[in-house]
Amino acid sequence: MRLYYLIGGLLRPMRLAYFYVYNVIFQTPRARVLIWNENDEVLLVRNWAGQSYWALPGGGVKRKERPIGAAKRELYEELGLKLPLQEFVYVATLQDQYTAWIYTVTILKDDVSLTPHNPWEITDLQWFSPKKLPADLSPLVPHALMNLSKSD
Questions:
Q1: Domain range for residue 144?
Q2: 92 exposed, middle or buried (CB, 10 Å; 0-12, 13-18, 19+)?
């Protein structure tokens, strides 16, 4: 077992409580990204501090940061992907527990390693067919996919 998984497991309840309180008080908006590959698969991640859901990569939008800039920054922080802003296509702004700007990008499957780039944040990542999504899915993912199909 890797040390950061152990630490993450121990700190998880405190971090979940912190994120919940922080989001309720400050209503921190998020930027999330639907990443597609040449096989029409979507990349989903699990965050060690999250609720073990498969989710879209992305994270909080910092103060004075544009959502598209946050999406670009988060993909680098979480996955090691450096993509130009022109690659990001706006899909929708969704309201769930927080405001989430959804973008989409297309990359080659081999452009991202399935070994977490930042294991302190992402514990697992995997490509999925939209027709065979995992059961333990963040509620935001189906909403983002539904909005993507509406924008096509």
A1: 3-151
A2: middle
β-strand pairing of 89-95 with 58-60: unpaired
- The identity of residue 19, as a single letter, is F
Cα–Cα dist 134/125, whole Å = 12
Distance of CA 132 to the CA centre of its chain: 18
pLDDT of 145: 94
**Cα separation values, 63 from 9, 47, 105, 118, Å:** 29, 22, 24, 23
The domain tally of the chain equals 1
Alpha carbon distance 74, 28 (integer Å): 15
pLDDT (tens digit, 9 = 90+) per residue, 96-127?
778 999 999 999 999 998 888 877 788 899 99
DSSP state of 87: G
